[in-house]
Amino acid sequence: MTLDFKPLSQCVGLSVNGLDLTRPIDRDTQAALYGAFIEAGVLAFPGAGATPEAHLTLSRCFGGLQRHPVKENWVSGYPELVDISYRPSAGGQSAVALYEVDGERRGGWLPWHSDLTFMAKINRGGILRAITTPRTGGRTGFIDQIAIYASLPEALKRRIEGLHVVYRLRPDFTHERFGRPKTLKLINNPPSLQSMAARIDSDFPPVRHPMVYVQPETGRKVLNVSPTSALGIYEMPDDAGDALLDEVIAHATHPDHAYFHDWQRDDLVLWDNWRTLHCAEGAPEDCLREMQRTTIVGDYDLGAPLSPRDPAVIAMSRRRNRSDAAA
Predict the structure, then answer these.
(1) pLDDT tens across 251-290, in order?
(2) What is the pLDDT of residue 128?
(3) Spatial contact of 49 and 276, defined as CB atoms under 8 Å apart
């Protein structure tokens, strides 16, 4: 196949045309796709995902596929696909939450994050497929943290070198300390997230990840910070650490650094979870937004579990609890 690669934006990713997912993907094409994935981090395939089979075929070019732990969200007949659709209350059970963001209700809204940073092992990536798009909104944002690291002031690079961020799962985003909108209200959480909340202490201990690491294939440095689930900086569990993390997150998530994909039916978008942040701006409360995704297995082997009795974790948790109580 002859592939046509074009920039998605000035700061993030590539658009890929010329890929026919109804045919087997030869080794040369697969190698070209994987090379583009390593180089760019985000690949968009406009209109290429007409079927679940096409979605799975493309996903397998980048590694094995991981089944979602919540079986209730598996797509019937395709357990490696997970439903992440927002369905208005009259249309059945939604797989995602409904939030009020700055006074506007949005179904399926998600803040900036990398997947599974609250776990010691982090999946390699994922591919989203659009099935039904809302009349407005519903975009997904992406930020390339290799480009973000390169753009950091040199003094800030020196300050964060060798530091780690502590993460812990919080299924309700109104409890997040970093990167949260000024006004955020949870309207409805699906049963799957409610179940996760009940299992935090037993199944989701705190973990830490380095703030910076090196992409092994290219030697480029990656800013490795997810606002969502962050408790603070392990080596600085105090106001100074929070201020430093706030400064880094504010730089990383500046709108000028983001690409927002305006979904069309059958679009596929791949992202490298080890180097990108993504978010979902959500759909209007009354709009159906049907999306499915795959999860590509892998781990960069830099995460480490922590004991809830670790002094730094205790200090951060107390600070977060006081903040929650004040709110």
Answers:
(1) 999 999 999 999 999 999 999 999 999 999 999 999 999 9
(2) 98
(3) no
Token couple for 313: 């974790």
76's CB contacts (< 8 A; 6+ apart) are none
- DSSP state, residue 73: G
In what side-by-side order are the strands of the sheet with 184-188?
184-188, 98-101, 104-107, 283-284
Q: How confident is the model at residue 204 (pLDDT cuts 50, 70, 90)?
A: confident
- The DSSP 8-state label assigned to residue 86 in this structure reads B
Return the closest-CA partner of residue 120 out of 283, 241, 229.
229
Contact 297, 124 (CB under 8 A): yes
Decide: 277 and 145 in contact? Cβ < 8 Å.
yes
Pairing verdict, β 125-132 and 283-284 = unpaired
Q: What is the CA radius of gyration of the chain?
A: 19
Q: Would you state the structure tokens that stand for residue 202, as one six-digit string? A: 């037993």
Cα angle: 158, vertex 163, 164; to 5 degrees: 150
Residue 192's pLDDT band (boundaries 50, 70, 90)? low
Q: Report how far residue 322's alpha carbon sits from residue 56's, in angstroms, rounded to the nearest whole number.
A: 45
Q: Are 258 and 139 contacting, i.e. CB atoms less than 8 angstroms apart?
A: no
- 158-163 own/partner pairs: CB under 8 Å, 24+ apart: 159/244, 160/211, 160/212, 160/244, 160/248, 161/211, 161/212, 162/210, 162/235, 163/210, 163/211, 163/212, 163/233, 163/234, 163/235, 163/236
Instruction: For residues 225 and 236, give the distance between their C-alpha atoms in angstroms, rounded to a whole number.
Output: 15
State the DSSP H helix or E strand holding residue 211, giving kind and residue range, or none if neither. none
- Of 11, 10, 23, the closest CA to residue 50 belongs to 23
What integer pLDDT is reported at residue 93 of this predicted model?
Answer: 59
Q: Residues near 202 by Cβ (< 8 Å), separated by ≥ 6?
A: none
Place of tokens 């809204």: 109
